[in-house]
């Protein structure tokens, strides 16, 4: 719903641009629909056009309420004046004059890229005598998290800050919300009252996860600009710049596999490579920036990166990051699996969410091989099992399971998670020598989540090394993602989530593949032999998957040796030892790269234990790294600048700031997940996804209410009273008689109901 409303507002804005006259004369060329549309289906064409209008690169929009303000700031068009106001406002994409993209990738550690984008937009669509709000929208990459934003407009500067929610003296929230997440991985800021013809200088920073597939790391940054943000080439020179650095984190050779833009290698130093693309272009980039590379590793390998704590750190112990690359050894066998899929089929899963889960389940079942065992549990208020025991994988059982899902995956009832988990534990008491695994998929939150964690942990500890691995997947915003993350951490499994219906199937398939391709289990580190204190952030060290590197962070006190040994078990139950060299990093911001992962795990622990001390650690970590958390909030602070030098303004560096008392803060919304919504789960609300439309009957009801309210407004307004005062006597008599007749009919119906019970 939010995406469609946004696209419609952009569509309205593009229609308004027909009023503009370019500096060279003539109007703006109308935007062309993307190629490949089926023109025989108008509805499909319109839907594809709206999808095309969603931002696929950092964009800025003028928020237009008064269409009369739309005009070229330099060359007035002398268009006829337009009366009225737009509700909702139209969004006119602003022309971009400059863009600079910087991407820093670290393959080792947690496989993360830190992205910084600097751009300059021109308010080309509002006359200089008027002003409007402007919205900056930035689509972030895979699992993107906003790190900060700085915007300068004229003599005003805006910067994001993270503040403690309990510290009311930090700043004064005196202005309405100014942005946040329109949806997951789509960040927006609203800058108030930008004058026509002014430039907007913005720097946005975010982090995102690297993709990993068959030994290849890749980064993909949204960088597809539409044609209508290009200024005239004869009037404005467009300069495009892309900087890329790659730090492998290991003493292995980095091999370039492919890139979307022409990059020149500028330097190669030890484990660090740098590339540059800089050119004057006629049109901005029409494709995402992608870069793919491999870190040569024939077999399992890894490293331990360590960094001393800082004065502002929440913990005085030193930091470490242990990672293992699965390598590309095709002879490495994957564990046989005994899997129980636990799928939420409550009423809130109706429609596309449950259909997407069913499709992902069909893919997961088809990936099972001979020797695996499985079962499926569909749960709501009740529990429905595909079989009373684990079924051996073959073509017949897989076909029967898919048919069973078609019949039993029906969205109805409430949510009860403990019962199916206990049933799955019972089924896996005999796993036939395979690695027992539980996959839990839910979109709801329940009251006994802490009890579930404690109960599952007790059962897993009692079973020892052969305990089931518990992996969790959260759908939408109504489930408690910290509960699911904690449950996966306790169960040595993997956690993942989807926050819009379009990404459910793809992310679930990736999650299944990552969790089900175990090549090393029961990992242990011999660090405790050398130092007294060595603590990992997660409850336990997960198993190594063939589909993604393992990354474990934590804290230690003491001096680590030059080499640590990681031990585990292979699929044939033989023991493997992996040598991990300890590397003291200087040029890798390990604390910032691991901050998001550490903060999420600490928040999950704080939620489970209800520990205030852990909450304060999260607050310190959040403020230190400018990352919003459940106990902090991100705000946009406005600062007035006394003087602006044009050269300094281009660099987005204010010269002199006003006093803190003059700064006003605007909160940013939707940047945290919360701890679930039990009430929404009980009521089976389906709006945990922002892109699900309400039911048709509610739409009809809303339209009817809107119509009736407008009629009522007409009969209750001052205009109607004035009209009655000018009515002649004959009309007044007729109206009184009509009202009396209606009243008599109403009284007759009421009396018949009371006296005769409604009988004729």
Automatic annotation (TrEMBL):
List where the protein spans the membrane.
none
- What domain of life? Eukaryota
Domain VWFA per the UniProt entry, residue ranges: 338-523
The protein's matches in SMART domains, at most eight in alphabetical order, are given as:
VWA
Coiled-coil portions: none
Pfam families in the cross-refs = VWA_3
Instruction: Spell out the residue ranges making up region: Disordered.
Output: 21-42
Task: Quote the protein name from its UniProt record.
Answer: VWFA domain-containing protein
Q: Which organism is it from?
A: Panicum virgatum (Blackwell switchgrass)
């Amino acid at each position: 719903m939010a995406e469609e409303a946004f696209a419609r507002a952009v569509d309205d804005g593009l229609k308004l641009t027909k009023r503009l006259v370019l500096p060279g004369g003539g109007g703006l060329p109308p935007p062309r629909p993307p190629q490949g549309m089926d023109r025989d289906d108008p509805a499909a064409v319109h839907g594809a056009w709206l999808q095309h209008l969603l931002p696929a690169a950092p964009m800025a929009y003028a928020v237009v309420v008064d269409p009369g303000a739309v005009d070229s700031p330099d060359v007035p068009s002398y268009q006829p004046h337009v009366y009225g106001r737009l509700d909702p406002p139209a969004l006119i994409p602003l022309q971009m004059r400059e863009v600079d993209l910087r991407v820093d990738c670290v393959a080792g550690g947690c496989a993360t890229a830190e992205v910084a984008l600097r751009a300059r937009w021109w308010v080309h669509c509002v006359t200089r005598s008027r002003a409007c709000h402007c919205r900056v929208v930035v689509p972030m990459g895979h699992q993107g998290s906003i790190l900060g934003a700085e915007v300068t407009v004229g003599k005003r500067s805006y910067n994001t800050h993270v503040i403690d929610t309990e510290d009311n003296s930090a700043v004064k929230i005196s202005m309405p919300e100014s942005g946040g997440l329109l949806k997951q991985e789509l960040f927006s800021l609203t800058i108030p009252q930008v004058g026509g013809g002014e430039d907007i200088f913005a720097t946005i920073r975010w982090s995102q996860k690297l993709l990993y597939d068959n030994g290849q790391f890749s980064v993909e940054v949204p960088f597809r600009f539409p044609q209508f943000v290009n200024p005239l080439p004869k009037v404005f020179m467009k300069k495009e710049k892309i900087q890329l650095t790659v730090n492998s984190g290991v003493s292995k050779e980095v091999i370039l596999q492919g890139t979307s833009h022409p990059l020149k290698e500028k330097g190669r130093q030890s484990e660090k490579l740098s590339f540059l693309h800089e050119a004057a272009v006629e049109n901005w980039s029409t494709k995402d920036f992608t870069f793919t590379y491999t870190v040569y590793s024939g077999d399992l390998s890894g490293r331990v990166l360590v960094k001393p704590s800082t004065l502002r750190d929440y913990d005085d112990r030193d930091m470490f990051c242990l990672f293992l690359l699965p390598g590309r050894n095709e002879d490495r066998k994957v564990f046989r699996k005994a899997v129980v899929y636990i799928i939420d089929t409550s009423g809130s899963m109706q429609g596309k969410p449950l259909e997407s889960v069913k499709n992902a389940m069909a893919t997961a079942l088809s990936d099972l091989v001979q020797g695996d065992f499985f079962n499926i549990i569909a749960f709501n208020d009740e529990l429905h099992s595909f079989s009373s025991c684990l079924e051996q994988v073959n073509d017949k059982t897989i076909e029967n399971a898919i048919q069973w899902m078609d019949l039993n995956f029906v969205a109805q009832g409430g949510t009860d998670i403990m019962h199916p988990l206990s049933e799955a534990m019972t089924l896996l008491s005999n796993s036939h020598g395979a690695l027992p695994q539980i996959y839990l998929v839910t979109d709801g939150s329940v009251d006994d989540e802490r009890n579930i964690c404690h109960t599952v942990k007790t059962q897993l500890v009692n079973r020892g090394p052969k305990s089931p691995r518990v992996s969790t997947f959260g759908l939408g915003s109504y489930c408690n993602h910290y509960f699911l993350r904690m449950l996966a951490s306790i169960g040595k499994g993997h956690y993942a989530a989807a926050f819009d219906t379009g990404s459910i199937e793809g992310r679930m398939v990736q999650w299944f593949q990552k969790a089900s391709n175990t090549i090393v289990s029961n990992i242990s580190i011999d660090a405790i032999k050398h130092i007294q204190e060595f603590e990992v952030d997660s409850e336990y060290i997960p198993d190594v998957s063939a589909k993604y590197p393992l990354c474990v962070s934590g804290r230690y006190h003491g001096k680590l040796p030059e080499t640590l040994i990681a031990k585990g078990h292979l699929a044939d139950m033989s023991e493997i030892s992996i040598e991990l060299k300890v590397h003291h990093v200087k040029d890798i911001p390990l604390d910032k790269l691991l901050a998001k992962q550490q903060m999420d795990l600490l928040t999950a622990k704080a939620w489970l234990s209800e520990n205030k001390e852990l909450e304060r650690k999260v607050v310190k970590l959040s403020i230190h790294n400018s990352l919003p958390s459940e106990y902090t909030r991100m705000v946009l602070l406005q600062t007035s600048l006394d003087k602006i030098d044009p050269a300094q303004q281009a660099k987005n560096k204010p010269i002199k700031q006003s006093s803190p008392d003059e700064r006003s803060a605007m909160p940013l919304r939707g940047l945290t997940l919360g701890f679930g919504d039990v009430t929404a789960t009980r009521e089976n609300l389906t709006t945990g996804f922002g892109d699900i439309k309400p039911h048709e009957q509610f739409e009809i009801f809303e339209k009817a209410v809107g119509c009736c309210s407008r009629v009522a407004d007409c009969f209750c307004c001052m205009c109607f009273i004035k009209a009655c005062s000018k009515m002649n006597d004959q009309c007044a008599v007729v109206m009184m008689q009509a009202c009396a007749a209606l009243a008599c009919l109403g009284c007759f119906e009421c009396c018949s109901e009371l006296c005769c019970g409604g009988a004729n």
